[in-house]
Amino acid sequence: MVRPRGRVGFTFIEAMLTVAVLGILATMSAQILLQVNRYFIMSRTRLDLQREARAVMYVVTRGLRQAQSDSILIDRAATSQPFYSRITFTKIQGTTMSFNQSGADLVMTVGTKTQTLSKNVRYLAFSFPRSDQLSIVSVSLTLEGLIYEGRKKALHMASEKVRVMN
Q1: Is residue 35 part of a domain?
Q2: What is the pLDDT of residue 3?
Q3: pTM of this prediction?
């Protein structure tokens, strides 16, 4: 558009188009930032749950490998807990050890000392995968963590078969 000499500025239409384009960009950028934030929170939660599950499985398998195979007892700690959510055994040294789910906690008891290994347990199960081989114990663990807007992310640590060495 050709402007007469001496006049400097923007037309009303140019100003309205600029406001409309900026409004569209602001609306889209808010949605993009929200999605990026949600992705970051979900990825961080998944990473934290994986790290915690690996640490818990390491402690459980290390304890089970030291068990006497004829002393292993799999049951549940209370009627409100899932079946097969507790394992109790005697180690070679004669110490009694147990792992069990108590609500959302995974509790390890060695002798008379009790320690909470995780506060994010959704499901824990111990079983003998083969009835003719009682020196192999299968451990199944599912952890759950909060992500955003009251939602939860669950991570199932694949069942791991542990061979009792004694």
Answers
A1: yes
A2: 59
A3: 0.75
